[in-house]
Amino acid sequence: MVAPPKLRPNGRRATAAPFRIRPAAAPDLAAIHAIEEVAFSDPWSAKDFRECVATGVPFLVAVAGDEVAGYAIAHAAADEGEILNLGVAPARRRQGIGAELVRAMMDALRARGARAVYLEVRDSNAAARALYERLGFREVGRRSRYYRRPVEDAILLRAAISAERGNA
Predict the structure, then answer these.
(1) What CA–CA distances, in Å, run from 110 to 32, 35, 95, 116?
(2) CATH assignment of 20-160, given 3.40.309.10, 3.20.20.370, 3.40.630.30, 3.30.413.10?
(3) How far apart are CA 8 and CA 71, in angstroms?
(4) What is the C-alpha to C-alpha distance for residues 21 and 123, in angstroms, rounded to an integer?
(5) pLDDT digits over 8-49, tens only?
(6) How far apart are CA 140 and CA 88, in angstroms?
(7) Which of 5, 10, 58, 62 matches a 20 to 30 Å C-alpha distance to 16?
(8) Could you give the CA distance from residue 84 to residue 43 in angstroms, rounded to a whole number?
(9) What amino acid positions are annotated as catalytic residues?
(10) Would you say 136 and 158 are in contact if contact means Cβ atoms under 8 Å apart?
């Protein structure tokens, strides 16, 4: 999947390199872990990522050229999915990669029978909260003191997924 070109406020195309989204594979793991280490104060371990590839959970990467620019990991059970982790390389932020990863993950979860998707986000992460709101997620709860380093509440978000693609 190739993301559509992002437009600037003046209507012109942004000059960011296009990217494609595909399933993650073992050779991607070092780059994924490197993004995780700089993106999060309480990062997942390299072992966590290896286990995700080995167990076959929905795990996508965005690739620009030959560089991993971002990733998303989820799981599905019954008719619900949960996005567990989403990271974009700092140099690749604000290029639409995070949004396209979420959309692609919602499609992957739909294919596994999910009709709703949940995720948690730090209360202070205004940029991520705005992204998720644009993608149809709504606040449904709060998990007190959920995050460590620093300790902070998580906002629980939910989005409905219709049976048809693109009608979430």
Answers:
(1) 24, 27, 25, 8
(2) 3.40.630.30
(3) 24
(4) 28
(5) 565 555 545 589 999 999 999 999 999 999 988 889 999 999
(6) 25
(7) 58
(8) 12
(9) 120, 132
(10) no
Which residues have a Cβ under 8 Å from the Cβ of 12 and sit 6 or more positions away? Answer: none
Contact 72, 63 (CB under 8 A): no
Q: Does residue 18 have a cis peptide bond before it, meaning omega lies within 30 degrees of 0? A: no
How far apart are alpha carbons 72 and 28 in whole angstroms? 12
- Give the domain ranges of the chain: 20-160
Please report how the helices 97-111 and 126-134 are oriented relative to each other, as an axis angle in degrees rounded to 10.
Answer: 50
pLDDT at 76 over 70: yes
DSSP for 65-110, written as a single string: TTEEEEEEEEEEETTEEEEEEEEE-GGGTTSSHHHHHHHHHHHHHH
The Cα–Cα gap between 117 and 86 comes to: 14
What tokens does 163 get?
């049976």
What is the reported pTM? 0.84
**Inter-residue contact 70 to 20 (CB < 8 Å):** no
